Amino acid sequence: MAKNMMEEFEALLQESFEIDTPQEGSVVKGKVIAIEAGQAIIDVGYKMEGRVDLKEFANPGEAPEITVGDEVEVFLRAAENARGEAVISREMARREEAWDRLEKAYANEERVDGAIFNRVKGGFTVDLGGAVAFLPGSQVDVRPVRDAGPLMGLKQPFQILKMDRRRGNIVVSRRAILEESRAEQRAEVIGNLTEGQTVDGVVKNITEYGAFVDLGGVDGLLHVTDMAWRRVNHPSEILSIGETVKVQVIKINKDTHRISLGMKQLQEDPWDLVAAKYPLNSVHKGRVTNITDYGAFVELEPGVEGLVHVSEMSWTKKNVHPGKIVSTSQEVDVMVLEIDGAKRRVSLGLKQTMRNPWEVFSETHPEGTEVEGEVKNITEFGLFIGLPGDIDGMVHLSDLSWDERGEDAIQGYKKGDIVKAVVSEVDVDKERISLSIKALGGDKFAEAVGGVKRGSVITVNVTSIEDGGIEVEYEGMKSFIRRSDLARDRADQRPERFSVGDKVDVRVTNIDSKTRKLGLSIKAREIAEEKEAVEQYGSSDSGASLGDILGAALKGDK
User: Fold this and answer.
1) Which residues does the UniProt record annotate as the domain S1 motif (predicted)?
2) Which helix (H) or strand (E) holds 480?
């Protein structure tokens, strides 16, 4: 019987050992029985004790909170080591506990608390209460973080983006938390804003096209065109980062949460008084603010600009870039030509503030005035001569010479020559001045034939004998008498019966002002004389012969 009792006792004892002895690789509860040499001695049951470094009981950046008598959970790695002690770890216990907790949070898309405790390549490491997670640099904040020092060791919420327990991999995001919070804050702020409302904001950022203004958790865009009524080349001209400004809410997009702001809307619109202050044809001083290919913009006052079109810049410089006539910031006098209040446009004129040079020239140089100038250009139809007032006059081919063809006469001129001419016509509307070089000495032909009429008999000098007739001269004007006009009788129509220097009476048959030629005929003179003699001294009916009549006429002349 005693033997049976011993066997039963051994079985119960063995069963007790199996129940009380912790299983290796599991989390067990233990009690701190001593703290020495930076370690906590923990009794995990069945007279098994192990040692754990105190730092394993501390959160990153914090001092360990552990005292004798505390009950803690540890991970039993081995029941006994070479010194007969249990191999335990508080850190591994916390990790197992943390993984269980984090997996539930990840499945429920809940936030988890953690603290950034170290910087690694590409980001940071975060302690999530026993499990270490990776925080990518792009997930730290909504904007790039230059100094992460203030964030280190700070307990804050994170969102788990990805986790793999088998590989021990967890990726978290702080940015997702901030964006969610920011979105809530933006929605709240935007909900309290209305279009047309005036609010205070702080200039947060400045770009080429405007500035972003913080309205207390939400940013609004203040476009450069809404900063002032005047032209603003860059926002930094009137704003600086950190400056507090008063702005008006122009537009709110509820879907995108975008807010458009304006500053000039809080100021008086200068265009309300433009029509009254700048009547048509009035002259004002302005400042050139911008120069383009098609003209120059001139500021009449802050917020009011007008365009001087290239066609209204100069009377004489037609095909010149505006930048060669005016320069930026230059003060100029301009005339108001047109105002379009609806389109907020003012058309200005620069040349209208100066007298029309063609008008001035017509007053100071009436027709017939002699002028002198430089040959500026030579074309196929004439010469262009520079005149006072920076204008040109044209001498047409037909006005170059009395005696030569225009095509021949123009060969005697070159650019740069100083020539004299006579003003023959000034057309102010068409901006044209006609000049004549051949009129300098007067019209010799008109002077020579001033008293001569068709049918007149004049005396000419023979200057040349040719086969077809003779060349004669009258008052310096040369004409040619054809062989058939040299005499009434064919036998006498011989050029050789005349000599150079002979004086001959001829009858004028034609006066051509265009070709500047006289039509002359000896034959016509003889026929006219014969007719006159017949009328005075007889007729064929009286029986008198032609010789008798002519003889009588000659005696009468004597």
Assistant:
1) 25-91, 109-175, 196-264, 281-351, 368-438, 455-523
2) strand 477-482
User: Over pLDDT 90: what percentage of the chain?
Assistant: 14
Name, in order, each residue with C-beta under 8 angstroms of 208's C-beta and a sequence gap of 6 or more: 224, 234, 235
How far is 521 from 229, CA to CA, in rounded Å? 87
**Rounded-to-integer distance, Cα 154 and Cα 551, Å:** 150
What is 323-373 written as a DSSP string? GGT--TT-EEEEEEEEEETTTTEEEEESGGGS--HHHHHHHHS-TT-EEEE
Q: Integer distance in angstroms from the first to the last C-alpha of the chain?
A: 210
Q: What are the beta bridge partners of residue 506?
A: 458
Q: From residue 28, give the alpha-carbon distance in Å to each of 54, 57, 303.
A: 18, 16, 80
Residues of the chain with pLDDT under 70: 1-27, 46, 58-63, 75, 77-84, 87, 89-91, 93, 441-451, 513-515, 537-558
In the chain, count of helices (H) and strands (E)? 9, 30
Whether the CB-CB separation of 385 and 375 falls below 8 Å is answered with yes
Would you say the pTM of this structure is higher than 0.85? no
CATH number of 357-436: 2.40.50.140
Cα–Cα distances (Å) from 480 to 118, 354, 367, 456, 464, in that order, read 119, 56, 34, 17, 9
**Topology (CATH) of 444-537:** OB fold (Dihydrolipoamide Acetyltransferase, E2P) (2.40.50)
Cα dihedral 490→493→497→502 (10° resolution) = 130
The class of domain 270-349 in CATH terms is mainly beta
pLDDT per residue as tens digits for the range 456-512? 888 889 999 998 899 988 877 788 999 888 888 888 888 898 999 889 998 988 887
Q: CATH for 193-266?
A: 2.40.50.140
| Cα(475)–Cα(516) distance, integer angstroms | 13
Architecture of the domain delimited by 109-179: Beta Barrel (2.40)
- Asked if 158 and 114 count as a contact pair (C-beta separation under 8 A), the reply is yes
pLDDT per position as a tens digit, 336-380 = 999 988 888 899 999 888 888 888 888 888 888 888 999 999 898
CA 188 to chain centre: 41
CA distance 153 to 455: 128
CATH topology agreement for domains 193-266 and 270-349: yes
